[in-house]
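Narrative summary of target 7.
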Amino acid sequence: MIDQTVRKIYAVSTLAMTALMAIVASGNSVHAEEIKIGIIMEARPAEQPWSAAIYDAAQALGKKNPTLKFLQSYKAYDPTSAEPVARQMLQEGAVVLDMHSFALNDVAHTLAKEFPKVPMSVSSFDPPVQPNLSIGTASYLQIGYSNCWLLAKLSKSGKIAFVGAMPIPYATELLKGCELGATAANSNAKVLAGYGNSFSNPQTTREQAQGLLDQGADVLFPASATEDSLGGFQLCEQKHIPCAGWASDARRYSANYGVVSAIVDWTVMLESLIQQHQTGRLEATTFDAAFGNGGLRSQPFDGAPAKLVPADVQKGYADVVQALKDGKIELPKSEAHPCCT
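Modeled conformation, tokenized:
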């Protein structure tokens, strides 16, 4: 009887130990499958729409797939500081690397050549470099068109204030799209443009925006998506005028007057890079975020800003976005990145 009891206890103990070992092995397996992704941003999400967009994409993918681990840095503006950070991420096991700044173009080309088996991406107007350096950009024409179509519908004066950081290719292309969208909504609409000559100083954008408001503009598009744009959003809140943004949700920076934004959804690009790592089949491409490929999506009409947009304008805007998605609105060929629109 005692022997049978001992044998039963031994059997139960053996089963328990086997189960424990299986749990441990499972935990080790999950850890072994962890995918590290390095992302170097220009600023923290609260400070900059451009960085907020890639941050939000990482958060969304992390919730969807717990095996993803994101290594993040905010040193992109200074290439001499960003390159050692990128190398450290690679040393720590990053198998995908996104350098989310135009300032890191040279660094990205250097690292892609040194680490040809690591899928990488960089914000750039250059073509992709095979096999592993993809380009992340957006349809600035579609962004400008959709935003300024709505702003023109809301403007009582027919004048839209457009403020960029500097007249570089993506800014001038946003302006071109803005002009096309505004006149499509109101043939008499006029876009007043200015540049603050700083990507980081909100005061310069605020001052430029105020100058355009003094000229009769009554709606505002702080168009850089960098830190300076926050000055424009702050002015919208102070002056109680409708504001447009892009890259991130405009309500993040103008809770009451951020009426519209073409949000860049970088999950599409990141998922492609992750898949390249998993399959081992690398192919550098240009991802041009647009309404048609899921890279752009509209900010929802809800919350305080939605009350500023009449129902018929909301419907008209949705129709414009759908037409852009379907290719029914003809836009000029992009000069900033000739591959795309």
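The chain has two domains: 32-139+266-293, 140-265+297-326.
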